[in-house]
Specification:
CATH topology of the domain at 4-29 and 82-119 and 176-219: Rossmann fold
Structural class: alpha/beta
Oligomer: single chain
Number of helices: 9
Strand content: 15-25%
Low-confidence stretches: none
Bound molecules: adenosine-5'-diphosphate, zinc ion
CATH architecture of the domain at 4-29 and 82-119 and 176-219: 3-Layer(aba) Sandwich
CATH superfamily of the domain at 4-29 and 82-119 and 176-219: P-loop containing nucleotide triphosphate hydrolases
Number of strands: 8
Helix content: 40-55%
Mean pLDDT: 95
Amino acid sequence: MFSMNLILLGPPGAGKGTQAKIIMDKYGIPQISTGDMLREAVAKGTELGKKAKKYMTEGKLVPDEIVIGIVKERLKQKDCEKGFILDGFPRTLAQAEALDRIMGEMGKKIDAVINVNVPEEEVVKRIAYRRTCKNCGAIYHLIYNPPKRPGICDKCGGELYQREDDKEETVRERYRVYKKNTEPLIEYYKKKGILFDVDGTKDIEGVKREVLDILSKLSHP
Ligand code: ADP
Ligand code: ADP
Ligand code: ZN
């Protein structure tokens, strides 16, 4: 049966969240962002949030078993039946292997991994000007994708804020973590024959075209 079970891979600030929302709107499949789920847990002060907070503030990875547990629960929900977009997961080899096990148990598979390529200096520029809606999670950029009214979300009127971990120093640490722990996944998925590269340095529209082109070939091979 046709399914669209996707992974968005790439360094922090590559534009994964931005493209995930575009795919979600076009194909009606949910975005599963482990970063968003963890930030929500931190904001609510849950047990999970208390455990994750220190790692996130320092730009380190939250331990695998915690993140794998939340993704496993999320993938069982009904809205994932027709497909899903994993954004920010997996980030380590252990997470990728756990995902394969979970998929196997559910009788599913990952159909495509979209690898968004962006160099470090561009990532730092993007994240410095990133603003996020507190209410709906919409993503803006003060220069490349500014809101119509400063500080206010176009979609819902919510307040825009800068993430605590979006300071330059923490971004550089997150980039190092990406290089060491996450970049090896490119090879992992290439070997499986499901990796698709996109040039993430294009503007949002340009990247969107590349991504939608890949997805249209998946659905009409
Ligand atoms: P970005 O895409 O800007 O790097 P995310 O919102 O995906 O940011 O992640 C923010 C933080 O949440 C990470 O720096 C890390 O601490 C934690 N996190 C998110 N996803 C994972 C994951 N799959 N494994 C471990 N930690 C994660
Ligand atoms: P990620 O989820 O990979 O961390 P985001 O989607 O949050 O990345 O994008 C990081 C920042 O860069 C945001 O401010 C976003 O508006 C901006 N951005 C995303 N894609 C592009 C692009 N192709 N060109 C320029 N800016 C972009
Ligand atoms: Zn909003």
